[in-house]
Amino acid sequence: MLIHDKIKKVGVVLPIYDQKPEYVYECIYSMKLQDYNNFELVIVIDGANKSTKQALFNALRKFPKPFKILERSTNKGIAYSLNEGFSCLSNCDYLT
Predict the structure, then answer these.
(1) What is the DSSP letter of 7?
(2) Gene3D superfamilies this protein is in (predicted)?
């Protein structure tokens, strides 16, 4: 078994609604700074306002890792968003 085969994959779902833009930016930036790189990021934009989405896209321009974005125009709540995001993750050992 190779050492790479032992590294666990982490799936991260980030639901976005109407958070303060600086919190959104800080969250994405903290993901960028992680030493652990074997993760998959799914961002669910759940009817977020324009300033929240702008902060998200500004942060993602500097995010070098692959990610998926799911976007809907109306808010369906955090539970729906998390479930939708988790359903998009593949082969992850841990979900958060």
Answers:
(1) S
(2) Spore Coat Polysaccharide Biosynthesis Protein SpsA, Chain A
